[in-house]
Amino acid sequence: MAYADVLTALADPTRRSILEALRASPRTVGQLAAKRLVSRPAVSQHLKVLERARLVRAEPRGNRRIYSVRREGLEALRRYLDSFWSDVLDAYSAEIARRMKGDPSRRTP
Questions:
Q1: Whole-angstrom Cα distance, residue 28 to residue 59?
Q2: Residues contacting residue 74 through CB under 8 Å, at least 6 positions apart
Q3: Are 56 and 73 within 8 A, CB to CB?
Q4: What is the number of other CB atoms lying within 10 angstroms of the CB of residue 28?
Q5: Dmax of the chain from CA atoms?
Q6: Is 7 exposed, middle or buried (0-12, 13-18, 19+ CB in 10 A)?
Q7: Running DSSP on this structure, what letter comes out for residue 38?
Q8: Mean pLDDT for the chain overall
Q9: Do β-strands 64-69 and 56-61 pair in parallel, antiparallel, or remain unpaired?
Q10: Contacts of 23 (CB under 8 A, 6+ apart)
């Protein structure tokens, strides 16, 4: 269940904040930590969780790592959420069919 890993990773508000920052542009741990009330080591730990969930990637550049969003990492979550939308549409369609069947003014002669 890859979507469960994504949901778990995004359950933490700091990780969501980091992901949102990376949406704007790739950044280093230092850049991410400068805008937060958590330490650099804490940001590194959050980034590890986001990496395991395949939401971010790290690209080594010299002695730094530049983090960026892996947009395809949200695909499993998107498929999972889309399945709920399909369920809703199916239920809506069934309800319309039921109402049409029960409404005498909608029947064909």
A1: 10
A2: 6, 55
A3: yes
A4: 16
A5: 79
A6: middle
A7: S
A8: 88
A9: antiparallel
A10: 69
